[in-house]
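Q: Here's a chain of 69 amino acids. Please give me its 3D structure as tokens.
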Amino acid sequence: VRDYFHAAPPPGTWIAANVKSRAHVVARGETLSEIAVRHGVSVSKIRQANAIDGDLVRVGAVLKIPTSS
């Protein structure tokens, strides 16, 4: 249960305010741009958090999604 709420903290909760990143599993057809928009962060922040140089991500890859705050 703890891992679930840390990966997807409900807005307005202590966990949401204090978690530094979330996890996102890349699905087939997703792009970094779509993932960034969905999570409300920039593509560059996702690249930086995951040491990604280009635009390609593999299906099934677990990306760290930094919080927008």
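Q: Can you summarize the key feature?
A: The beta strands are 21-25, 62-66.
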